[in-house]
Amino acid sequence: MDLPTLWFFIVGFLFVGYFVLDGFDFGVGMSLPFLGKDDTDRRVLINTIGPVWDLNETWVIVAGAALFAAFPEWYATLFSGFYLPLLLILLALILRGVSFEYRHQRPEKVWKARFDRMIVVGSAVPAFLWGVAFANIVAGVPLDANHDYIGTFFGLLNPYALLGGLTTLLLFFTHGVVFVALKTDGEIRGRARRLAVRAGALTIVVAASFLVWTSVAFGTPASILLSAGAAVVLIGSFLANLRGRERLAFGLMAATIGLAVLSLFLALFPGVMPASNDPANSLTIVNASSSQYTLEIMSWVALIFLPLILAYQGWTYWIFRKRVTREQIPAEAAH
């Protein structure tokens, strides 16, 4: 395997990590209106991701940095052409992070309610727009001979991309609700399990529709195989949740997201940004990658630091593995 191909899949791995980890963060944030019956419940929900949400978010920074260094042409085309949706994602992530830190600074219900709404919006917007962005990347967008995007913002909101956005929105929502069931106890755990069943049924229908559309229109044998695997694992997660096996359901949801994202990368390969107007203007791993020397240096850096990052992340989740309950919330936080 040559270095451009290797780095294409490393970038794919980083985005898989981001969507699996920050995906359930988004889902927990979106679940506040459905599972948070009072402020204590909402504190429980936020505390399930409190120790890890910012660490999960760093995956997208690493993925963006790897994309910039390994495929500068892809990075330039993507971030200039998709400037507005990516800016909206960035603003939503800032909004969500600020809300996590500030909602508990004052005891007034109105103050907390405003930041709770900001958490919901700051979770739903990225969850939707990431699907829109990746669907457009797979389907292709109009590019000129300099590989610059020549379409419009509303051109990105085509039916296929909107279905992709709805798919990631529902996948992340269900992923987050299953995580709540895994990390809580008592009444909120039961509500989360019931909500996961309802959301999971809808997610199966929407995700299957998107994966079938992708496979028929843009699929390769490898991507179709992974898409089928993602569908089977998603159904398995739904059945596991029905039986109350939350750990298995969460693991299978993570596998579903990972397989779905990898199927999109395989549908794209060896391209990185197809031109829908003229295939000659498309970006591939060959004409979008950095020099051989740059990729060699990056490979040594990744070999050293990526295992350390994974080890630290695993250690963090092990330390904060216990369930969060209402009894653990300080009494004054409930006012």
UniProtKB/TrEMBL annotation:
It is found in: Cell membrane. One of its GO terms (molecular function) is electron transfer activity. GO terms for biological process: aerobic electron transport chain. Its main location: membrane. It is a multi-pass membrane protein. The keyword Cell membrane applies. The keyword RNA-binding does not apply. Pfam families: Cyt_bd_oxida_II. This is Cytochrome d ubiquinol oxidase subunit II. It comes from Herbiconiux oxytropis. The gene is cydB.
